[in-house]
Design a protein that fits this description.
7 strands; single chain; alpha/beta; 7 helices
Length: 244
Amino acid sequence: MSLQDKVIAITGASGTMGRALVSELSKRGAQVIALTTSPQATFPAEADRQTDREIEVLTWQLGNESALRDRLQKVDILILNHGINLLGARDSASIYKSYEVNTFSVFRWMDLFLESLIADKAEDKTEDKSITSKEIWVNTSEAEVNPAFSPLYELSKRAIGDLVTLRRLDAPCLIRKLILGPFKSDLNPYGVMSASFVAWAIATLAQYGFRDIIVTINPITFIAYPLKEFWRSLYFRVFSRSLP
């Protein structure tokens, strides 16, 4: 898969991993749209100097993802990368916030993107071939299968991981998971990998066609995750059905 001239929108673009992805994908010729909840976020020119393209920056508000519904129709790949990590918290407010950001907001973005594809197909605006070329990449984290030493982060990430597995069964386009190990960032100051390396690995593995992109130093994840994904997918397929 070539990323050249692909329109790629990235949530959480002003964070450590978001900025690394913006830079890496721009270098590979993509037209990047930075989606951020920080109105003051800026992206230096060096991020896209190799393509001479400006990074389009769009702000959005949690709970009002639908405000950018129309803009998603022009997007080829939507990367859902935003999240929070409330280390050590277990109060009700932190529980609600963790699930709202890490689980429900991500799921709303997925729904918006998939609804736009279905609407285009129903109105014969988009050929089936171009619909199937669209993609969603979701940063579900290694917390799907391994302890994150942050209970609310782990719980909310496992929830969105399962919802992605469920939604994959009927999705009209490819949905990739990004199962990322500990990289150094504001969310995880104890990370051991650099964000730039992880972004490079994500882009490279996606271009090689991996649906589940695992980037970690933990060898257990390469065994535990495929087993978990197989059994959860089988469970969802057997005990649920899609509505007409």
